[in-house]
Specification:
Blueprint lengths: L2 H7 L4 E5 L5 E2 L14 E5 L3 E10 L18 E8 L4 E7 L11 E6 L5 E4 H6 L1
Parallel strand pairs: 6-8
Antiparallel strand pairs: 1-2, 1-3, 4-5, 4-7, 5-6, 7-8
The structure holds zinc ion.
The site of zinc ion (ZN) has 8 residues, from loops.
Amino acid sequence: MSTTKQAMDAPRLPGSRCDHCGNVAFPVTDGCQRCGRQEMRTVELSHHGSVWGFTVQRFAPKSPPYVPPAEGFTPFAVGYVELVEGIKVEAVLDCVDFKDLEDHASVTLTATEPVPRFATSNLLERA
Ligand SMILES: [Zn+2]
């Protein structure tokens, strides 16, 4: 897959940017958390970021709301990804090894529904 095709197909998270003060927010909101004005415009957020912090979910969460995969539960990482806009997005973090998420690892958005999902570059290169 070429870089251009990846960029065109890349999922993007919608966020909001304040026309008055430039504050960026996720998820989309009408009111600015910084200046309080109702001048937010919907924008596409960056699809690259770095892992700000994470933990490993080692047991199946309560269901519902969690929907276990058909092949059964396996431990997964959840955490915050800091985008270049300076905001942190809570997400599921896919990786080859949980150690790959350490040291502010670079990650790429792979899905937006039902929750944001990011993956490490070594996992994406395997695909
Ligand atoms: Zn504002």
